[in-house]
Amino acid sequence: MIRNFFINVFFLLPVWVIELVSLFSKDIKREYSFDAQSKILFALMPKFDLHKVEDKEIPKVRDSINERRKDIRLAEKTKKNVETKDHYIGNNKNLLLREYIPYKTDNDNIILYFHGGGYVLNSVDTHNATVSYFSEKLRTKIFSLEYSLSPERKFPFAMNEALDSIDWLIEIGYKMENISLCGDSAGAHLAASITHHLANENKENVHSQFLIYPMCDPGCNSESSELFKEGYLLTKKAMEWFWDKFRRNLQDDENSSFNLLLLNPECKIPKTIIITAGFDPLSDEAEKYAFLLHQNNNYVKQLHYPSLFHGFASMTRLKAAQKAVNDFLSEYKEIL
């Protein structure tokens, strides 16, 4: 409780004061300085060795994270009301799809959103404020999927649930050409795994994909994964742990819907925007994925925020994060 109090007080401090205090303790890598406000927030947040958690303890850890997010508000509130409706879909009507309806919509396209958390953590609820913020800024309806998590449900279970949710959206009147996929981290991987699957099956694909610092490579052996292996919220050991919980067997590593870097050069992927952060262990693999799309003559744009970190999109109370999110949402809105 005391820690939460100090974190909430921290957000009241003017950024110029924080930058002044941090003037002589800058964290510079690849010629860029880590955002000063983010650096102090990380120092206030509890440290946790996620990679040491045993499978039987995972449900308890999920509950703890969900409760902690209720106590600490990291995302900005919407200025206008965003209405939500919960739909339960699937054969057993047990798959939650939350609809976000902004005060005004500008187009006929909708977004199917997948939350991050390494396929192991988080939920529609943990990302509720983030998705509401996105919906208001984009003035677009968003449907957020509560897909099943690992290790209880491994690859490709979540992908199949996501495909079911697309079928449901089509059943209620939306067209494939009007559905854009969006997600952060594991959610971005899930979005891309769907576009890869549909392309490999020569099926009609979605309108576009917007991938926020996607996990792409189960090898976790890029330069950035080593350079930013700890100290920036997401660690290399945690990332290896996430992949291990999600993977059924080593053969999954040869599947292009699991390992995105195995993209089939013959596949046409929908219009893509990829968001990367400078102090993110996943930045190099996401950039490599962007290059593969470009090399295969797909439309792709990469937006890079060099002073930020993995997870910033859900922390818009940080001034630099909010500025970056507003910037990339304006780019997203242009292709919707």
Question: What's this, in brief?
Answer:
This protein has 336 residues and is an alpha/beta fold.
Layout of strands and helices, then pairs:
Layout: H1 2-10, H2 15-21, E1 28-29, E2 32-33, H3 36-44, H4 58-71, E3 83-89, E4 95-101, E5 110-114, H5 128-138, E6 141-145, H6 157-171, E7 179-184, H7 186-200, E8 208-212, H8 223-227, H9 236-246, E9 271-279, H10 283-295, E10 300-309, H11 319-335
Parallel strand pairs: 5-6, 5-7, 7-8, 8-9, 9-10
Antiparallel strand pairs: 1-2, 3-4, 4-6
Helix pairs in contact: 6-7
How would you name the CATH homologous superfamily?
Alpha/Beta hydrolase fold, catalytic domain
CATH fold-type name: Rossmann fold
Average pLDDT metric: 95
Instruction: Identify low-pLDDT runs.
Output: none
Strand % is: 15-25%
Total number of β-strand segments? 10
CATH hierarchy: architecture: 3-Layer(aba) Sandwich
Task: Note the gap between the termini.
Answer: 42 Å
Order of strands across the main sheet: 3-4-6-5-7-8-9-10
What about the largest sheet? 8 strands, mixed
Principal-axes geometry comes out as globular
Output the CATH class name: Alpha Beta
The helix/strand series, from N terminus to C terminus, equals HHEEHHEEEHEHEHEHHEHEH
Q: Compute the number of helices.
A: 11
The level of helicity is 25-40%
Number of domains: 1
Structural class: alpha/beta
